[in-house]
Design a protein that fits this description.
There is one protein chain. This protein is an alpha/beta fold. The chain has one domain: TIM Barrel. It has eleven helices and seven strands. Helix 1 crosses helix 2, helix 4 runs parallel beside helix 5 and helix 8 runs antiparallel to helix 9. The radius of gyration is 18 Å and the shape is globular.
């Protein structure tokens, strides 16, 4: 499966008793598909995968697959400290209808390169031919994917993409050069999407796309067309969204923004804390500044509810 474009990392709406809130998730999925995104990614970092149990994860993917109705691909996150469990999750999510797998390594003890490589190969094998996207985030992962391992994994037939959330754009270029023709690169919120597209990236997988989907799609279209002047005119104000995303806790920031837009996705999963009034006001100002909040904005909170 070919993947390219804007893939929002979905939040995971969970109530105080741990139940998955189906209606807000369905509404968000429908809104994003209508906004023109090219795919959806449940159970990424913004989806708080580390705070969810297996039953919650599976239900979230089932809801997203159902509401998407094959209009765009669903790239479901798989994360575990155990290779066996990661493979089992992969098989179950493929059976649930996921079109592709976002492979994430959770590590408690440090791992050598052989262990890291074996983990991702096991996920690729369990994916039953579905496309696998590698995910690397050195800020949060105890054992990261080295360039050597990435290059070796690029020879696995169904491992065709990587989302690199390091802050090193040069590393992205290294990956592109070492895996040319075998593996494509997606930008993360830690990178400037237009710049990643300029060096050969194929799109953006990130939480901020949940709150600025139409703007993100316009940016992608301009970059894909090679209209870099238009792309940078769109990118400059949108980078403020990335800045605010980096300043505050990932899920708390995106959930706050979505709640401000009228999507009742709840609060971050405990023990994470919700953001305070000052942070909420700062996020609201950024949303207004990029046209993602207020009268006429898609998903905006009606005046009577403010």
């Amino acid at each position: 499966m070919k993947l390219a474009g804007v893939f929002p990392y979905l939040v995971s709406p969970v109530d105080r008793d741990g139940g998955v809130m189906e209606e807000p998730l369905r509404r968000l999925v429908s809104h994003l598909v209508d906004a023109g995104v090219h795919g959806l990614t449940p159970l990424g970092s913004t989806g708080e995968f580390a705070y969810l149990g297996w039953a919650q994860k599976k239900r979230i993917v089932e809801i997203v697959v159902s509401e998407t109705r094959r209009r765009v691909p669903v790239v479901a996150g798989v994360a575990s400290t155990s290779t066996h469990d990661a493979a089992a999750q992969t098989g179950a999510l493929v059976e649930a209808g996921a079109d592709a797998i976002l492979a994430i390594l959770e590590a408690y003890f440090p791992l050598g390169e052989d262990g890291v490589e074996a983990y991702f190969r096991a996920i690729a094998s369990a994916a039953k031919g579905r496309t696998v996207v590698l995910y690397t985030n050195p800020q949060f992962q105890r054992s990261d994917l080295s360039l050597a391992v990435i290059e070796r994994l690029s020879h696995v037939q169904n491992i065709g993409y990587i989302k690199d959330a390091s802050t090193n754009t040069g590393r992205l270029l290294s990956i592109i050069e070492r895996t040319r023709g075998r593996m494509e690169v997606f930008s993360a919120s830690a990178h400037i999407p237009a710049c990643v597209m300029m060096i050969g990236g194929v799109g953006w997988m990130a939480g901020p796309a949940c709150i600025v989907p139409r703007q993100s799609v316009r940016l992608y279209d301009a970059a894909k067309a090679g209209d870099w002047r238009a792309a940078m005119e769109l990118q400059r104000p949108l980078w403020r969204v990335n800045e605010i995303f980096a300043k505050f806790s990932l899920a708390a920031c995106i959930k706050t923004a979505l709640n401000l837009q009228g999507f009742a996705v709840g609060e971050p999963i405990p023990p994470q804390a919700p953001l305070g009034d000052a942070a909420r006001a700062e996020i609201e100002a950024v949303l207004r500044g990029v046209g993602a909040l207020g009268e006429g904005a898609v998903g905006a909170v009606p005046a009577a509810r403010r």
